[in-house]
Amino acid sequence: MVRLSREPGAECPACRRQMAPLDRKPIVSTDCLVDVTYICEWCGMETKRAVREQAKRPHARTGGRNDLSRSVGR
Question: Which fold has domain 1-54?
């Protein structure tokens, strides 16, 4: 079983133990949500939760007007 450590934790609704993230799939109609499937290693129950995807890397801001004018060939 592959563990996805970047996902938030979930509690099993049946036995109240910590669940492990099993799979993640992007939600097509959104740009920042993913469906995460969790499994309880104790009782085997699975549940799915929609969570906000964390930014992988903040975008660096570039100079400004001068950078834009160079990129269009002025």
Answer: N-terminal domain of TfIIb (2.20.25)
Chain centre to alpha carbon of residue 3? 13
Give CA separation, 40 vs 2, 26, 68, in Å: 13, 22, 51
User: pLDDT by residue (tens digit) across 15-73?
Assistant: 999 999 999 999 998 888 999 999 999 999 999 999 888 765 454 444 545 544 444 55
What residue ranges do the domains of the chain occupy?
A: 1-54
34 exposed, middle or buried (CB, 10 Å; 0-12, 13-18, 19+)?
middle
